[in-house]
Amino acid sequence: MPSNMSLFSVNAILIISTDDRSRILTKYYSAPHAPPGSTNQPGANPYPTVKEQKAFEKGLLEKTNKQTSDVILYDGRVVVFKMEGDVMLYVVGGGDENEIMLFGVVLALRDALSILLKHSTDKRTLIENYDILSLAVDEIIDDGIILETDPVIISSRVSKPPTQDIASVKNIDLSEQGLLNAWEFGKLKLAERMRQL
Q1: How far apart are CA 62 and CA 59, in angstroms?
Q2: Which residues fall within 8 angstroms of residue 74, CB to CB, at 6 or more apart?
Q3: How far apart are CA 19 and CA 11, in angstroms?
Q4: Which of 6, 127, 175, 176 is a good FRET partner for 89, with 20 to 30 A between their CA atoms?
């Protein structure tokens, strides 16, 4: 049993274009309890500068571009990945991290994006819907801790409100008189409920 047990399990989540090798979304995590300046402790960010991050991403993309497997050990880190359209989805964990758990994260991200973007997970769609992409990643992982891996729950928390609900919101009167009317209505209903008790 490892001596440093921690919920922190994801070092980075990367979404990189395979066409021009551009970064679409990259998030590197550092555990709040990791000693500063250490790169080999669990939860320590091994790539603190953007230059080191880009070098890692370039090497990773070159290594995984022609791979047939979904899990590799790269630079002492477990990396799980999926190719979706013209982008690669990566989840990077520590060298002793459970690859099945990390693979569940990359599958949850892929499936949630597929639900949210209506099966159109490509570079252009991801950039146009960056807000949805960022929220989905934040619903799955928070500071390197895996929160959720069910794509249906993730997409329900992230999805935009239906357009038919927008019309009913526009009919709400937010003027001073409208708010006073709402206040009076609330007081009346509360008084009725109190009398029933």
Answers
A1: 5
A2: 59, 60, 63, 64
A3: 25
A4: 6
| pLDDT tens column, 107-154 | 999 999 999 988 888 899 999 999 999 999 999 999 889 999 999 999
For 9-32, the DSSP string reads --SEEEEEETTT--EEEEEE---T
Nearest in space to 11 (alpha carbons), one of 137, 154, 143:
143
How many Å apart are CA 88 and CA 79, to the nearest integer?
12
Q: In what order do the strands lie in the sheet with 71-74?
A: 23-28, 12-17, 87-93, 77-84, 71-74
Is residue 4 a contact partner of residue 42, using CB atoms and an 8 Å limit?
A: yes
What's the whole-model pTM score?
A: 0.74
CA 102/CA 85 separation, integer angstroms:
21
**Nearest of 25, 33, 20 to residue 53 by alpha carbon:** 25
Using CA atoms, how far residue 22 sits from 126, 136, 177, in Å, is: 13, 20, 53
The interaxial angle of helices 99-116 and 151-158, nearest 10 deg, is 50
- Residue showing tokens 């009919």: 171
Q: Rounded to an integer, what distance in angstroms lies between the CA atom of residue 35 and that of residue 96?
A: 19
Instruction: State how far the Cα of 43 lies from the Cα of 6, in Å rounded to an integer.
Output: 8
Q: CB under 8 Å, gap of 24 or more: what pairs does 37-43 form?
A: 41/4, 42/4, 42/6, 42/8, 42/94, 42/96, 43/6, 43/8, 43/94, 43/144
